[in-house]
Amino acid sequence: MDQRIRHHRPHQPSYLYRRNMEPWYSLHWFSPDQWQQFRFAHPLALYAIPAVVLLFLLRYYINRQARQRLNLSLGGTRSGQRSTSRLPISREVADRSLTTMLRYLLPLSVFLGISLTLVALARPQIVRQQREEQSKGIDIMLAIDVSSSMTERDLLPNRLAAARQVAQTFVNGRKNDRIGLVVFAGEAFSLCPLTTDYALIKQYLGELNSNMIATSGTAIGDALARCINRMREPLATSADTTSNQTDSTSSKRSKIVILLSDGDNTAGNLDPVTAARLAKAFDIRLYTIAVGRAVRSSRTASATIDEGILKTIAGIGDGGFFRATDVGRLRAIFTRINRLEKAPVRTYVYEDVQDYYRIYLYWAIAFLLFALLLKNTIYGNILED
């Protein structure tokens, strides 16, 4: 399960802007690329800008209707007078056009000041996100049969080689999980403790062979006992190659055993059923995989697989029993276990929020002060006439 927790960092003041940032009076702040980076905290304030446009248009329409006009005739009575007055009249018209355009300078400054004030109220921000995934993971012990019967070739190249390859692929698919390795034949040995050093685990898996244990037979009960003892150990031990500190919540980690064998329990000092009950008492789930075909004529006695004990201990351990009759089926079994045994992942999302409203507030004040200057000086009176 993916649980996402969002953390907001406090808003940074304007004096903490990065050094290479453009000054507030730069036109860079009005470029489309810059505006695409913004996220507005209060976007509703931007919808008031069209309302300001409508108010200015309404004011212009009312003033135009109320303004008094005096029409003057500039034409002469004689043709000579018309020809001599063309040049001054054209200059006068040009001057009046320039004056007419300058009349819009005051309302335009007021409009820009109000609009930029609304932009500042909308609070443009740049949000930078950083995601961090955390998971306690689970403990997995792999118990693999390395007896002589695992050299049978009903799985190519043989049972042990197929199990070795698929187990390495299974290790590659894990994340934040501790994995250990137990090998067994007539006896059981802990080959690798619980660790998150997956390269080490794959190295041990690559070295598995049928000559590792001289004692013949299949000690399933002893193998389960070795797995249980490893899982009962605290996290921070000298045997764990990657643990640096004690995890106070280690007792809450999920624990599973994946036992892979091709025969019945024929050796060892501990009954598999007793070992399975002991695993259940420690909240350890058991998954068992029977490797090979059910009946196969061979010179080894273990060529005939007895599924009964493997099914029984899987049922006691609240896990599951699987049969792998070929490499593809074995790979599918590990894939299914991989899906079933997933630790919950908690995703932390850190947001670095930086406000830029002050820049547009400075622009708004500049335009409003410019409008005030035009209104209260002789230039304002000239433009109004």
TrEMBL record:
Which InterPro entries would you find in this protein's record? UPF0353/GerABKA_families (IPR050768), VWF_A (IPR002035), vWFA_dom_sf (IPR036465)
Highest taxon, organism lineage: Bacteria
Q: Which Gene3D superfamilies does the record associate with it?
A: von Willebrand factor, type A domain
Transmembrane residue ranges: 44-62, 104-122, 360-379
Q: Which UniProt keywords apply?
A: Cell membrane, Membrane, Transmembrane, Transmembrane helix
Query: Does the record bear Transferase in its keywords?
Result: no
UniProt entry tagged with the keyword Transmembrane: yes
Record's SMART domains? Answer: VWA
Domain VWFA, by residue range, is: 139-337
Q: Pfam families given for it?
A: VWA
What is the protein's name according to its record? von Willebrand factor type A
| Naturally occurring in which organism (per UniProt) | Fibrisoma limi BUZ 3
